[in-house]
Design goal:
The chain is built from 9 helices and 6 strands; from the N terminus they run E-H-H-E-H-H-E-E-H-E-H-E-H-H-H. Helices cover 42% and strands 18% of the residues. Helix 5 packs parallel to helix 6. The protein starts with 7 loop residues before the first strand and ends with a helix. It is of the alpha/beta class. Helix 6 links the parallel strand 5 and strand 6 (152-156). It has helices spanning 22-27, 30-44, 59-66, 73-76, 108-121, 135-147, 161-169, 177-180, 184-192; strands at 8-14, 49-53, 77-82, 99-102, 125-132, 152-156. The protein is globular and about 40 Å long. Strands 4-3-2-1-5-6 form a 6-stranded parallel β-sheet, with helices on both faces.
Length: 196
C-alpha cells in the first residue's frame, strides 16, 4: 500500500504520434519532453508520490530514473493503465509494484475515460503537471481542474504540443517560466519546493 502521508503529484505526459492530430506532433519538442519527465521524476519521487497514466513513451523513462534511486517504489510511484491497451503494455509496466489496472469498456474512448476518472478522482493531488501530449492532456486537465480546484497546475509549455496549447489558452494565470525555462531540474525544485 502507498504511503498516504506523501504529497501526491499527478503527471499527464506523452510524446505525440505523427499519425494523430498533426498540431501536437508539429509543435512538440521531443527532447524537452524527455528532459522534463526525467527531471520531474528525479525531483518528485524521492520526496513525494508520482501518479500517472501509462503511456509507452513515458513509463520507460520513469522506470529508468527510479532504477537509479534508493527509494521504496511502492511508497513513491503509482501507474494507472487501462486493460483496453493490454496487448501494447511495455514490459516496464510490470516492474512497478503499484500498478492499477482499470477495466476495458466498450471502446478506446470509454476505456480511457474510465481510467482517467479513476486515476484523477481516487487520489488527493496537490499538483498537476502537464508535459507535451496530445488530446488526452486536455481531457485530463478538465477532469483534474474539476476534481482538484485548489491544486497547483503546471502546463510545461516549453515542451510544446498539448501542454503549450493549454498554457496559451490562459497565459495570464500561469508562471511565465513554464514557457521559457528549459532548466527543468531547477524549475521543478523551485516551483514544488513548498509542496513536496
Amino acid at each position: 500500500m502507498a504511503n498516504d502521508s506523501l504529497t501526491k503529484v499527478f503527471l499527464s505526459a506523452s510524446i505525440p504520434y505523427p499519425d494523430r492530430d498533426r498540431k501536437f506532433y508539429d509543435t512538440a519538442d521531443i527532447i524537452s519532453i524527455r528532459d522534463a519527465v526525467r527531471a520531474l521524476a528525479t525531483v518528485v519521487i524521492p520526496k513525494a508520490h508520482l501518479v500517472w497514466g501509462g503511456h509507452p513513451s513515458i513509463t520507460p523513462l520513469i522506470r529508468f530514473i527510479v532504477e537509479r534511486m534508493n527509494v521504496n517504489l511502492r511508497n513513491h510511484v503509482t501507474l494507472y493503465q487501462s486493460l483496453f491497451f493490454e496487448e501494447y503494455f511495455p514490459s516496464d509496466n510490470f516492474l512497478f509494484e503499484n500498478i492499477v489496472l482499470t477495466e476495458r469498456r466498450g471502446n478506446r474512448e470509454e476505456s480511457l475515460k474510465l481510467m482517467r476518472n479513476k486515476l484523477i478522482g481516487e487520489n488527493d493531488f496537490k499538483v498537476g503537471i502537464f508535459i507535451g501530449g496530445m488530446e488526452g492532456i486536455n481531457d485530463e486537465y478538465l477532469i483534474f481542474k474539476e476534481k482538484h480546484p485548489s491544486a497547483l497546475i503546471l502546463p510545461i509549455a516549453s515542451t510544446g504540443a498539448a501542454a503549450s496549447f493549454l498554457y496559451e489558452s490562459q497565459p495570464e494565470i500561469f508562471d511565465i517560466r513554464l514557457k521559457s525555462d528549459y532548466a527543468y531540474m531547477s524549475l521543478f525544485r523551485d516551483l514544488l519546493d513548498d509542496l513536496i
